[in-house]
Amino acid sequence: MKLYGRICHDLNNITTEKLKASKPGVSNVQGKYICHQCGNTDQTLFFQYYCHHCNKETTYCRYCVNFGKAQSCKDIYIIESKRHQTDGKYRLDFELSEQQRIASENIQRAVLKYEHLLLHAVTGAGKTEMIFAGISAARQKGDNIAVVSPRVDVVKEVYLRLTNAFKDEQIDLMYEGQFAQYNSTFVVATVHQLMRYDGHFNVVIVDEVDAFPLEMDQQLMHTIQKASATSASHIYLTATPNKRLLSQFNHSQIIKLPARYHGHPLPIPEFQFNTIKETKLNPKLLKFLKQQIENERKTFVFFHDIRFMEKVFNIYRHYFSKIEYVSSIDSKRHEKVMRLRNNEIDIMFTTTILERGITLEKLDVVIVNTEKFNSSAIIQIAGRVDRKIAYPNGKVLCYHEGLTKHMMHAKNEIVKMNRLAFQKGWIT
Question: Where is the Helicase ATP-binding domain (predicted)?
Fold first, then answer.
């Protein structure tokens, strides 16, 4: 493996690669610290201590310390980038819909011209398949590509689809604990992993750009810029763009895709007044879950709070054999998701950790205390349902203790997208 385009802390780690530049890990510019590894300028994230190696006080950046300590008394090394052409061959097992083809052509055009594009596509529109032609065109030019997302689960899902389609490409998968095996010509990674690069990627495709932590952390958006070459195309994919993201693009740079690839409408949330307590069985929820088992359908039950979810789970676990719960702090999270995919779990109590990046057949969802969720989360959760062409008419059941603006906005957005898709003739 070569470290092309990478930030390196020890030149002994390179072989035939060429050094592009070296600079202190942290510099003081006009009284303000800046980290040259991640670009951080938040002064609260710098820390001073006495370094016994250089016998003086040094400053290091806490924001990117997991990627190697960047500090003022030691240089970091930027390795020269390198391009490598391939034939860009890929396999697609189905023909793109008219909507997907329009998006694919726009993405390919933006990639070839090194322009930016925002794809506002409903959940289940088939966004991943829309980027294939653009990736192929870029690889034929020798452009380096990064397909990134804030969520590990999404990254893994996208990686599986890309490796299945681009079988002749050497694709690196990178997230915490998982490192590159090849030469970083084609990378699928969490956004944080781009901190390892400087000026390397000609195409950066950001899936789920609105997901936490990317929507909350502008430093990560800067990381995308820093990892990009001087001439680079950025393609942003999301079902729920916020106002700040939309404001960064003009009308011609936004492609709106209101239909799912299979031509069925988006499921509409059903609002039901129902209070779920952590100390008492809820007959309505129990009856629904039992019906789900009888109908051989799977169920996600979404909660806003981990501890509350665990207490409620302890009530219902006595009534079902294939029931589990999962959250971001669950050490067995990835194992449970794998069991879910292997049909070993029928009912999953979950936080918003499963609102994205997973597709199952015959799935319905329940949202507990829907009034505590924002509209983006409600739209994403609803988007888990009816993603497979063979199993439409799924349920999005929203239990609540009072309607909110977020709830109404989410429902109205889904209805609006269905109406637009119907007007264009993309759903029936």
Answer: 108-259
- Within 166-228, where are the H helices? 218-227
Map out the domains of the chain as residue ranges: 7-79, 98-257, 270-423
Distance CA 259, CA 24 (A): 50
Q: Which CATH superfamily is domain 98-257 in?
A: P-loop containing nucleotide triphosphate hydrolases (3.40.50.300)
Q: Residue 322, class by beta-carbon neighbours within 10 Å (0-12 exposed, 13-18 middle, 19+ buried)?
A: middle
3-state SS, one letter per residue, for 319-375: CCCCEEEECCCCCCHHHHHHHHHCCCCCEEEECHHHCCCCCCCCEEEEECCHHHCCH
CA distances to 129, 235, 262, 421 from 96, rounded to whole Å, are: 8, 19, 10, 16
Task: Return d(Cα 411, Cα 418) in angstroms, integer.
Answer: 11
Cα–Cα distance, 54 to 143 (Å, whole number):
41
Condensed to tens digits (0 to 9), the pLDDT of residues 362-417 reads: 999 999 999 999 999 999 999 999 888 777 789 999 999 999 999 999 999 999 99
Residue identified by tokens 């820390």 is 47
Six-digit token pair at 67?
A: 């990627």
CB 203 within 8 A of CB 147: no
Q: Which two tokens stand for residue 312?
A: 């409620």
Instruction: Give which of 293, 278, 300 is closest to 398, Cα–Cα.
Output: 300
Domain 270-423 has CATH 3.30.565.10: no
Same fold, 98-257 and 270-423: yes
79 contacts 6 by C-beta, under 8 angstroms: yes
At 216 the pLDDT is 57
The residues with which 78 forms a beta bridge, in sequence order, are 7, 21
Per-residue pLDDT of 277-318, as tens digits, reads 999 999 999 999 999 999 999 999 999 999 999 999 999 999
Q: Considering the entire predicted model, what is its pTM? A: 0.89
Q: For residue 252, give the DSSP letter.
A: G
Torsions phi, psi of 148, nearest 5? -130, 160
The residues of the chain scoring below 50 in pLDDT are: none
